[in-house]
Amino acid sequence: MPINSKFTFVQILFLFISSAFFGAHAQSILDTDMSIDADKKPLGHILDLMEQKGNFRFAYYSKLVVKDSAVTIHSKQSTIKDVLDQLLGNKYEYKESKGFIILRYAPLELALVLEKNSVVGDHQVVSGYIMDVKTNKRIENASVYEKNALQSTLTDKEGVFELKLKNVLETIELTVVKENYKTITTIFLSEVKIQMGSRKSNSDYVDGDFSAVERTGIGRFFISSKQKIQSLNLGGFISEVPVQASIIPSLSTRGMMNSQLNSSFSLNLLGGYTGGVRGLEMAGLYNITRMNVNALQMAGIFNTVGGSVNGVQLAGIYNNVFGDLNGLQMSGINNSIKGSLHGLQLTGIYNSVQKDSKGMQMSAIYNTVKGTQNGLQISGIYNSGSGIVRGAQIAGVLNYAKELDGFQFGLINITDSPSGYSMGLLNFKKNGYKKISITSNEISDINVAVKTGDNKLYTILMAGRSERSDEEKLTSFGIGFGTNILLGKRFTYNPEISSQYLYLGNWDRYNSLSKFDSPFTFRIFKGLAISAGPSFNIYTSEKRDKNTLDNNTSTFVQDRTKRYNVIKDNNKGISGWVGWSFGVTLF
Question: Distance between CA atoms of 558 and 298, rounded to whole angstroms?
Fold first, then answer.
């Protein structure tokens, strides 16, 4: 590595380490021997085969690794690193992390030129510049960080950097990272008095693309351009610290390194931009977390997490998780999960899960699950399941399930599958039961009923009308349920129960009719059938106005049903009879 000739500080140890530095502490995967034989096979197939043989996983951005490209390789008992070099050439570097090999696209090389390493007050000041090895061009916006002190900076337009390190150890480790460049680390001795004990941080690489929060509207507004560049350069590098604090993202205890820190306690006076949380994070206004949250996250306005949440997320207005949520998510307006839900979502307006849900969603307005739902959706207006719904949907107005293997309850229920159960005023199912029947019975001259659902269970909306004179009229309306039992190719049996309100010219008198109809249906041809059968009826009439002295039971109903009576009124307001119905069914 090029070194400025003016650099004459005492006891300098200068060591250039490429990407293998990050795997030096855990060489067990990359140094494992493996044999691979393949002729013109897709690169993705070979990577899958290596995962199976080595019992590890690859992590990479799919747009930077051409999995469909044909590759030929014959490698006998070579290390996994050597196999990858043969497959990918020198355009990638490899990092290890807890059972993963992370492939990072890095076709270019950079160099660090150290110009200053001196003590100023109680700080060790380190400065220099970063350049492209091939072109000697200075590199702007390269991240330079000291991994033990957890301090970092970006190079300026001239590629120059300066770090003021406090309480450093005997050795200083400067790491330089820039997109599309291979990572390098320089180790040298500090000139300050060596501190007793060890303060080395627990650093590692975490698998995943954690740039999601930076691409959101919230991220573009609250995160500075320098912080975004820093996060892009360092990627999944994460270090463990006990505590971090911020006023706003640009004013924090660790500066730009905050986005790479996983802390046990995170306190953000107004708002914060951190790497991850494994304990408690609190903010007066907002929390922006690049990676994972484990335990509890609270904010006055919103929380957004680029990884997954295992625990509880609370916000006054809005919660957003790009990974999975295992636990509780609660907000005043909206909860959003790009991954899967295992737990409970509670909000005032809208809950959204992009993948699968195992648990419960509750909102005043709208719930949606794009994947498979195993659990319960409850909303004031609308529930939607774009995948398989194996649980229950309960809505004040509308439920939709692409494939229903559970239960729907709402005013209107819609599903694109014939399975499951729907109960509401209107139920529309694929190949379902959709009929209009026009009938006459002992008290109503004409009745019209709309029947929707399926053969197992359909809902009935009905209305009827009768007239005996200009003064005596009956209007009925009600709901019911029925089932369609096949008796043959053209014959069905349709037992139905219903409850109707009878209006007899006076709203002060409550008149209800409970019916059990037992019609048999014969299909004449497709779209037209006739039906007829007996019914059993219980009629109840009670006075709303206690000062009214009229007999409880309407003479209209008495006159129409007295020859069929099996239960007489006896001035108690209850009577019953065996009736009949006859009519046609359309569709």
Answer: 67
What are the pLDDT digits (tens) for 395-426?
999 999 999 999 999 999 999 999 999 989 99
Residue type, 421: Y
Angle at 502 between CA 563 and CA 484, to 5 degrees: 80
* DSSP element (H, E) containing 241: strand 237-248
Give the separation between CA 439 and CA 458, rounded to whole angstroms: 18
Interval 532-554 mean pLDDT? 69
Give the angle subtended at the CA of 437 by the CAs of 433 and 440, to the nearest 5°. Answer: 150
Q: What would the pLDDT profile of 343-383 be if each residue is shown by its tens digit?
A: 999 999 999 999 999 999 999 999 999 999 999 999 999 99
Gyration radius from the chain CA atoms: 37
- Of the ranges 82-91, 436-445, 504-513, which one carries the lowest mean pLDDT score? 504-513
Residues 359, 340: Cα–Cα separation, whole Å: 10
Characterize the bridge pairing of strands 392-395 and 357-363. unpaired
Can you tell me which residue has the tokens 């107004």?
A: 270
Give the pLDDT confidence of 84-133 residue by residue, as tens digits: 999 988 888 888 877 888 888 899 999 999 888 888 877 889 999 999 99
Sequence-ordered list of residues with C-beta below 8 angstroms from that of 63, at least 6 positions apart, any chain: none
| Euclidean distance between CA atoms 436 and 337, whole angstroms | 42
CB 165 within 8 A of CB 146: yes
Task: Identify the band that residue 549 occupies on the pLDDT scale cut at 50, 70 and 90.
Answer: very low
> Which two three-digit tokens encode residue 362?
């509750």
Residues in CB range of 586: below 8 A, 6 or more apart:
435, 436, 437, 438, 527, 528
- Which two tokens mark 152? 């970092």
Helix (H, G, I), strand (E, B) or coil at 297: strand
How far is the C-alpha of 210 from the C-alpha of 254, rounded, in Å? 19
Query: What DSSP element (H or E) covers 400?
Result: strand 398-404
Q: Which domains are assigned to the chain?
A: 15-19+108-205 (2.60.40.10), 31-105 (3.55.50.30), 206-322 (no CATH), 324-431 (no CATH), 434-586 (2.40.160)
Assess contact for 391 and 405: CB atoms under 8 A. Answer: no
Q: Give the other-Cβ count within 10 Å of 516's Cβ.
A: 15
pLDDT tens across 259-304, in order? 888 899 999 999 999 999 999 999 999 999 998 999 999 999 999 9
Nearest in space to 586 (alpha carbons), one of 429, 438, 452: 438
Residue 446: strand pairing partners: 465
Q: What does the pLDDT look like over 185-194, one tens digit per residue?
A: 888 776 644 3
- Written as six digits, the tokens of 537 are 């009826």
DSSP tag of 271: E
Helices 43-54 & 80-88 angle (0-180, nearest 10): 180
Question: For residue 181, what are the β-bridge partners?
Answer: 108
Task: Write out the two tokens for 556.
Answer: 């209209």
Arithmetic mean of pLDDT, 153-166? 91
Burial 63-83 (b: 16+ CB within 10 A, else e): eebeeeeebeeebeebbbbeb
